[in-house]
């Protein structure tokens, strides 16, 4: 469950970092080349000092229930969802309806997430600043041509890279 008290107490970036790391994901902060992976090594400092810029959720157990943690993140430009067994269409829909991510997210990679279908990919059309989308090993996508044509029409500046059978 999302701890809204915690978000208020430590700020959205810190609370989201804690959730993501507990789930096995990595985060990278603005101005840092290093990925943060150790929960106990989370940086401390004044509220709002560390802003999440990138999320790598490879092999993590992030799921829809925790996506409220993403609402307050204003600086995330890059998200990678790889081998996330709990990521499904509703998660992508939720991601694309998060107004801060609509403004900041530029790159998204979705790889080997077996529960993602055309519906989830089509939901991404609300990410109006998305510049690059990489899709690979998504067996749930059945209407490739139609889905990608619709997405490309909605996001004409999107570079779409596909590695799908």
UniProtKB/TrEMBL annotation:
Gene3D superfamilies: Ribonuclease Inhibitor (3.80.10.10)
Top-level taxonomic group: Eukaryota
Protein name: ATP5S synthase
Species name: Ploceus nigricollis
Lineage start: Eukaryota, Metazoa, Chordata, Craniata, Vertebrata
Primary gene name: Atp5s
């Amino acid at each position: 469950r999302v701890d809204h008290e915690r978000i208020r107490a430590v700020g959205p970036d810190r609370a989201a970092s804690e959730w993501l790391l507990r789930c096995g994901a990595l985060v990278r902060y603005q101005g840092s080349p290093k990925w943060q992976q150790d929960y106990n090594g989370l940086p401390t400092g004044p509220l709002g000092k560390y802003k999440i810029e990138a999320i790598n959720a490879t092999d993590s157990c992030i799921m829809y229930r925790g996506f409220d943690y993403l609402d307050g993140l204003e600086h995330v430009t890059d998200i990678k969802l790889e081998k996330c067994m709990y990521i499904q269409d509703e998660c992508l829909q939720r991601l694309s309806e998060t107004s801060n991510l609509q403004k900041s997210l530029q790159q998204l990679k979705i790889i080997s997430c077996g529960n993602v279908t055309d519906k989830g990919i089509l939901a991404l059309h609300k990410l109006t600043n998305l510049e690059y989308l990489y899709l690979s090993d998504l067996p749930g996508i059945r209407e490739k041509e139609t889905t990608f044509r619709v997405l490309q029409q909605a996001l004409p500046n999107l570079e779409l890279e596909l590695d799908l059978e």
